[in-house]
Amino acid sequence: MNYAIITALFIFSSIQFVSIFGEISLINRALFNFTVNLMQKTAKDDKSAILSPFSVSTSLFMVYLATNGKTKEQLQKILGGTARTSDLRKQFANQIADSAKIKSKKYKLNVANRFCVRKGFPVKDSFKRMLRLYYNETVHEFSFEKRKGFVQGINKWISRKTNKKIKDLIKEDSINKDTNILLMNAIYFKATWKNQFMKAVTKEREFHISEKEKKPLNILLTH
């Protein structure tokens, strides 16, 4: 039996679960299915995991913008189902823009995306324009010979974006002579629970991670 605890950060600004008063859009349905499949893949081993479908999908959308042919068709199906291409682009444009504009005293959200290519690797100007339009980003270059400085720069950028929670996203051995493209993505989210645990009824109890492993954890008691 799999005892993995999967916590997904459902930060899709536009996703709403189906209610008796409305229907879910084609894109949101596709993204919901993507989220479920992503969680199932992550839960294959007996380890806890925290994942953000929003973060992963916005990263994949960069790949979608860069591809053509069958690859683009497959990504279209994953991210948008049978929705029109124009609708898919519009929805992601809104989601990415909304996440970049978020300013709140109650929580903090930073999403970092970066598209990197080996120096000399051909990149179309049309993709560069779309990357600027959707992500306010440019295509960054790296080389195998100068990978040390590149890796240091990427890790400093990620550390800044995640409030120093992620300091080593990549290492020098992440890049070899055959590496042509690197897709970078990270998300930082900090907030308090809407309904926080009351100290008077919070006690330390044993939490069973699996049949053999357990650890002490603060638990809210109802009686």
Write the layout of secondary structure elements.
Blueprint: E1 6-8, H1 26-42, E2 49-51, H2 53-66, H3 69-80, H4 85-101, E3 107-118, H5 125-135, E4 140-142, H6 147-161, E5 181-191, E6 202-208, E7 214-220
Helix pairs in contact: 1-3, 2-3
Task: Please outline what is shown here.
This protein is α/β, with parallel strands linked by helices and 223 residues long. It contains 6 helices and 7 strands. The model is unreliable at 1-22 (pLDDT under 50).
Task: Describe the overall structure.
This protein has two domains: 101 residues, no CATH class; 86 residues, Antithrombin, subunit I, domain 2 (Antithrombin, Chain I, domain 2), CATH 3.30.497.10. 39% of the residues lie in helices and 21% in strands. The strands form three sheets. Strands 4-3-5 form a three-stranded mixed beta sheet, with helices on both faces. The chain has a two-stranded parallel sheet with strand order 1-2. Strand 6 and strand 7 form a beta hairpin. The N terminus is likely disordered.
- Order of strands in the sheet with the most strands? 4-3-5
- Overall residue-averaged pLDDT value: 84
What is the structural class?
alpha/beta
Tally of helical runs = 6
From the alpha carbons, calculate the radius of gyration and give it in angstroms. Answer: 20 Å
First-residue to last-residue Cα separation: 29 Å
Domain Serpin: 36-223
Protein name: SERPIN domain-containing protein
Keywords: Membrane, Transmembrane, Transmembrane helix
Transmembrane segments: 6-27, 48-67
Write a concise keyword list for the protein shown above.
two-stranded parallel sheet; 2 domains; Serpin_dom; alpha/beta; 39% helix; Serpin_fam; 223 residues; Antithrombin, Chain I, domain 2
